[in-house]
Structures are given as structure tokens and as C-alpha cells.
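Minutes, project huddle
Topic: does the predicted pose make sense with adenosine-5'-diphosphate bound?
PN asked that the exact inputs be recorded in the minutes so nobody has to dig through chat later. Recorded below.
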Amino acid sequence: MLFSSPTADSSNAPLPDGAPLPPIEVHDLTVAYGRKPVLWDIDLEFNEGELVGVVGPNGAGKSTLIKAMLDLVPSASGWVRIYGEPYAARRKQVGYVPQRESVDWDFPVNARDVVLMGMYGRLGWFRRPSRKDHHTADECLEKVEMSAYGDRQISQLSGGQQQRVFLARALAQDARIYVMDEPFAGVDAATEASIVRVLRDLRAEGKTVVAVHHDLQTVEEYFDSLVLLNLRVVANGPTSEVFTRDNLLATYGGRLTILDRAAEAVRRGGGPRIDRP
Ligand SMILES: Nc1ncnc2c1ncn2[C@@H]1O[C@H](COP(=O)(O)OP(=O)(O)O)[C@@H](O)[C@H]1O
Ligand SMILES: [Mg+2]
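Predicted holo structure (C-alpha cells), as shared on screen:
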């Protein structure tokens, strides 16, 4: 399978008009693989219309947190609510951009098909995409500056182009919440700039974006609020309050000097990624 889509369900509870429900609420969440807990007692609440960064070292549980929000991993205790309902009732409101490595890029489809597949949750599995659907798919490819590549097999795209196609796929879903796992990992500067523009456009439309991020140098520039994660939530709140050296030290367990150097190396081009020393 190309990538297990969480959108293939017809359930879609109506959103209450103007209700002050948080887009995502996580309560007492604990997740374990086998007997080893990897998320412990997580409490979070996100604000609508914000870009939220999830930051922490490799193995901190960032991807697991994203997957728990999307019911892709079972929780040992606690719950997640999307606008006050379980994910299953809100799945069409949530667009997911998975970590690029988790996708089978040899799957024989072109870029436009990948985007159309993102719309199946809305179209229903058995309806053929209409002209209008194709038009929407092309519009979404245009938003990520990939118009010229609609007919290209995804295996023949660069890493940055693949990432943009998957962003277009999520955009085609026309969700209210977007959840992305390391959207900037391994992409070139042009792709990063293009993705940042799309995220800001989403915010301007009042949508909520939660993105796992590994580059401490751009955290303040990109995100309105942060979750600093390492098994537990170390800190959560507005970036201006939470992004402090003490909080980062607590999150990264005192390895920040190494991280500072790694971050500097990444800024200069090349060098190790922050959470993959
Ligand atoms: N499917 C899995 N089975 C067992 N252990 C896993 C699985 N996925 C992740 N883990 C472990 O859970 C921890 C958190 O992983 P992950 O959520 O991927 O962290 P991050 O995304 O922050 O790097 C790590 O120790 C990882 O090895
Ligand atoms: Mg991860």
C-alpha cells in the first residue's frame, strides 16, 4: 500500500457553529509499544488558527503523538478529541502529511493521482473523480508549485517534490486541521520556503497546523506555539514564552551544546540533522 490513509471513512460529524471547542485536545494520554511507554500522561490543548510546532530529540515520541491523534496507534490510557469528538467522527476535518520515509515511493502512480487519492475520503471510494475533482487536484499542485509535475511518476520526483505532492494531497482534502510529521526533513531551501508559504496561507484561512519540526534555528520564525516533548510534555504554550534555553535543556537532556553545533552546521548547509546526530 502506498500509505495507509486515515481518510477512507464516511463518518463526519457536523461541526457546531461558532462553538469554542479546541481543534485538538489531548487528555492524560499514555502510549506504549509493548510494555515500553513512549508517551507518558500527555495533556495538550491547541488553539484554532495557529501553527504549532512539536519539538524534541530523536525518539522523544513526536511521531507517536501525531499517530495517536489520528488513531494510528492505540493508547494505553487517556483520549484525544478533535473539536470535541473522537477522531473517527472528525477524520475529514484532519489532513495528514506523513513522514516521507514512511511512504512507499515506488508505488506506480503519478503526482496528480496521489492528490486525487487524498480526496477519496470526500469523494467516496467508488465514485470516479470528476473533471472538477481533477481541477481541484491541479489547483492544489499549483499551490505547492508542482503544476508541471502532475503526470510524473512519484518515484521520479526529488525528495522535496515528493514532500510537496503530499502536502498538495492533504490540501485537496480541504480539512480544518493539518497534521504533518517533519514536513521540512530532507527538502531543499526552495521547497522549505514553498511549504512555509502554504502553512501561512492555511493559518490565514483560520486553519490549525500541527507540525513536527527538528530545526531549532527556525522554530521561532515558523511557529506561534510549541510543544516541547520528550516522553512527557516538557513545556507547551506560545513560542515567545516556551522557547527558552532552560526548556530546551530539559527537553534535550543537557545535550544542547552538541545540538547548537549541529544546528549551526545545518544552517551552513550539510552537516548532521539536529535530532539525528
Ligand atoms: N512501531 C514501533 N514499535 C516499537 N517501538 C516503536 C515503534 N515506533 C516507535 N517506537 C519507539 O518509540 C519511541 C518514540 O518513537 P517516535 O514516536 O518515532 O519518536 P520521534 O518521532 O520523536 O523520533 C522510540 O523509542 C522508538 O524507537
Ligand atoms: Mg518521528
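Observations noted during the meeting:
- Strands lie at 24-33, 36-45, 51-55, 77-82, 94-97, 177-181, 208-212, 225-230, 232-238.
- Residues 33, 38, 56, 58-64 surround adenosine-5'-diphosphate (ligand 1) (CB under 6 Å).
No decisions taken; revisit at the next huddle.
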